[in-house]
Specification:
The chain has 6 helices and 9 strands, in the order H-E-E-E-H-H-E-H-E-H-E-E-E-H-E. The chain is α/β, with parallel strands linked by helices. It has one domain: Glutaredoxin (3-Layer(aba) Sandwich). Strands 5-4-3-7-8 form a 5-stranded mixed beta sheet. It has a two-stranded antiparallel ribbon with strand order 1-2. A two-stranded antiparallel sheet has the order 6-9. The radius of gyration is 17 Å and the shape is globular.
Amino acid sequence: MKKTLLSVAALVGLGFALAQAEVTIGKPAPAFTLPSQDGTPTSLSTYKGKYVVLEWFNPGCPFVKKHYESGNMQKLQETYTRKGVVWLSINSSAQGKEGYTTAKEASDIRLKWKSPSTALLLDPEGKVAKLYSAKTTPDMFIIDPQGNLIYQGAIDDKAATDPADIATSKNYVAAALDAALAGKPVAEPFTKSYGCSVKYQ
């Protein structure tokens, strides 16, 4: 009986910890360090003082392919990194799951898709994805220069895999960055992300 009560307490404690891990708009974004595609340790804290975009990435996901094979994601990356925004793509697919890549494979994919992101980070154990409660690929987060989260959610308002939809979609990430860079509040700081589920272990 005592062991059962301890087990229940442990589960309740775990649930509370996970609840506490939920990211919140306007609050500090969780710190992390991950290796990039070239093996360089990359810490979020390095970029304090800059806007940072986190983009959850899976090269095997058709929703991700929609934005990369059309060039839409690369266009966004180029537009905003030229304005001083740091863009970190994060692959949290576990080994043996769809989208998992070695560092070499990640480098090759980045070259193939000509991604001008700041780095592609590898998170096969899903630790950072769980810190941010990332649910889909893509799942987008924007952090302000003070380290606070100012946007979380979908890349745009067309939850489909057809690249033809991009031209008529509302891009939430671009709208949030444009507002923030102009010193204005983000009109829609939270939206529901869409895409493939993050392939956790």
